[in-house]
Amino acid sequence: MAGGIMQRSGRDGGMVASLVGVLLLSLGGCASEPPKPAPAVTPDQVRSHADKAFEKLKQEEQNRAVDPAMTP
């Protein structure tokens, strides 16, 4: 009978230790400083990036037309 009591308290101790660990981790997550907001992107920046990407795409298409051996 003493063996049964020891086994049960051993399992309960592991459960308590797990709960304490989860509690400490959750409190640590709340204690960290809040994330900084993402920088605002203006419509002009978006347009500039899109224009650059489009020019790069056009250049790649022109290079394929010049060298058809590069096509898959």
Brief rundown of the structure:
The protein is mainly alpha-helical and about 70 residues long. About 75% of the residues lie in helices and about 0% in strands.
What does this molecule look like?
The chain is mostly helical and 72 residues long. It has one domain. It has two helices and no strands. The longest helix has 30 residues, at 2-31. It is elongated. The N and C termini lie far apart (76 Å). The model has no long low-confidence stretch (mean pLDDT 77).
Labels describing this entry:
72 residues; mainly alpha
Tally of distinct domains: 1
The geometry reads as elongated
Question: Helix count?
Answer: 2
Radius of gyration: 31 Å
What is the makeup of the main sheet? none
Strand content: under 5%
> What level of helicity do the residues show?
over 70%
Distance between the termini: 76 Å
Low-confidence stretches: none
Q: Note the run of SSEs as H and E.
A: HH
How many extended strands? 0
By secondary-structure content and strand pairing, the structural class works out as mainly alpha
Q: Strands, helices and their partners?
A:
Elements: H1 2-31, H2 43-66
